[in-house]
User: Fold this.
Amino acid sequence: MSSSIATTPVFQRITTILDEKFGIPREDVTPDTVLDDIELDSLALIEVGLALQKQLGAQVRTEDLSGSATVADLYELVNTAVGGS
Assistant:
């Protein structure tokens, strides 16, 4: 499943935010990318969450964001929040 999410609009939005806000090139981000490996701490995750809320209307709790280990985990939280399957 991880590879199939890489082409979804939600995943693309996540990679755009990571690129624009944190300088992490989109091509370096895959669903299996570990958030610690790209140095996203809890504060950075909150910033990502706020950007996703603003852009997609995704209401994701801070506690849930901090429990994300990979970009795929983050995707699942956001996709669920925006009513995806």
